[in-house]
Amino acid sequence: MGTIYIPATIEKFVVREKFVVREKFVVNTSSKYAKISYIGYLFSKWFLNKIEEPKPETHLQYADLLRASSGNHILAELGEKKETTLAEIFDLMIIQPTGEDDVLFTNDYNNNIFCVRDVNNELRGVRVWNVWNNDSWSRSISWRVGAFLVNNMWPDGIRVFSRG
């Protein structure tokens, strides 16, 4: 369906420093943080202690799943291109800090799915979705992040990301 360029990094990506729940809306023009309102238990268990090495520039491909499929079937289809990184996921989240249309779904019900190695080098699924906060001051987006076993069933309507 599409491809997006992800720039190289020169610093290590410390997950615990980036994937932090931020309850309050803070204007941050540096795009250093994504507003995250929820981190699931399994994501915390599998990823919060992870540190990723700097990475070269890359391209991620994405496609929408047209029918429910097993994770094993999807992984077989993706082959060696299936793995992404948390740094790349974070880069995509900060591109859309207030729910702009771009590659991540921001429609409150569709999910964005990635395959990432956890702190123990196990391949896991990472799910990113959003929730809208409608308050009297502004309508703002916050991201939610969860994790799951990759061999689960994956529902139709999700967007799957892989290496380009």
The residue-averaged pLDDT reads 85
Number of strands: 11
Shape: globular
Number of helices: 4
- Radius of gyration (Å): 15 Å
Element-level helix/strand string:
EEHEHEEEHHEEEEE
Major sheet details: 7 strands, mixed
Distance between the termini: 11 Å
Can you list the strand order of the major beta sheet? 1-5-11-7-8-9-3
Sheet-strand content, in percent, reads 35-45%
Uncertain ranges: 24-31
Q: Give the fraction of residues assigned to helices.
A: 10-25%
In terms of quaternary structure, the protein is single chain
Number of structurally distinct domains: 1
How does the helix and strand content classify structurally?
Answer: alpha+beta
What features would you describe in this structure?
The protein has helices at residues 15-18, 41-47, 71-78, 86-95, and strands at 2-6, 13-14, 36-39, 51-52, 58-64, 69-70, 112-117, 123-134, 139-149, 153-154, 159-163. 18% of the residues lie in helices and 35% in strands. The model is unreliable at 24-31 (pLDDT under 50). It has four helices and eleven strands, in the order ββαβαβββααβββββ. The strands form three sheets. It has a seven-stranded mixed β-sheet with strand order 1-5-11-7-8-9-3.
